[in-house]
Amino acid sequence: MSHNKLVLTAETVPHVALDFMNATHFEELERVRTLGELISGYKQSKNDNDRLSEALNKWIEHTQAHFARENELMIDIQFPMYPMHSGEHNRVLEEMERMVASWNKTYDIALLSDYVFTAWPQWFEQHVNSMDMVTAQFAVMHGYEQD
Ligand SMILES: [Fe+2]
Ligand SMILES: [Fe+2]
Predict the structure, then answer these.
(1) What residues contact residue 51 under an 8 Å CB cut-off, 6+ apart?
(2) At what angle are helices 120-127 and 82-106 packed, to 10 degrees?
């Protein structure tokens, strides 16, 4: 599985108009990079399973905080597309939680690999490039000050 490579990095992910959002996105990609390394080096041992489960939990925690902070921002700035953007956060968080629950039960590395190397990065790039981009732009245009 070592032929798998993540092409989405801090250099290639779209950048938005608010630095704190970019910083969170880079952190998230760093966690996904760690997951990618664990998947590439996976040798079907209990130790490997446990390390992946732990890294997946940290990823979910980071995503929860990431989405919660963006949701707060949208409420602060009265972003008109809040229901759509926060709804997308909920949908993907549930999808990730289902993925992790299934991993913890079946240890299906092919399924996990497909999600981490393909499905999630595609979603993430598209999400940052659309909803996050528009949200950050709206915030800046309406005088939002970063702390
Ligand atoms: Fe985001
Ligand atoms: Fe978002």
Answers:
(1) 38
(2) 170
Distances (CA, A) of 39 to 1, 10, 25, 146: 8, 20, 21, 37
Q: How far is the CA of 44 from the centre of ligand 1 (A)?
A: 33
For the chain, give the mean pLDDT: 95
Structural domains of the chain ordered from first start: 19-141 (1.20.120)
pLDDT of residue 18 exceeding 70? yes
* Ligand 2 centroid – CA 37 distance (Å): 25
Q: In this structure, which ligand is nearest to the CA of 66?
A: 1
Contact 140, 12 (CB under 8 A): no
pLDDT value, residue 145:
85
CA of 81 to the centre of ligand 1 (A): 14
Separation of CA 126 from chain center:
11
pLDDT mean over 20-42:
97
Which DSSP symbol is given to 43? -
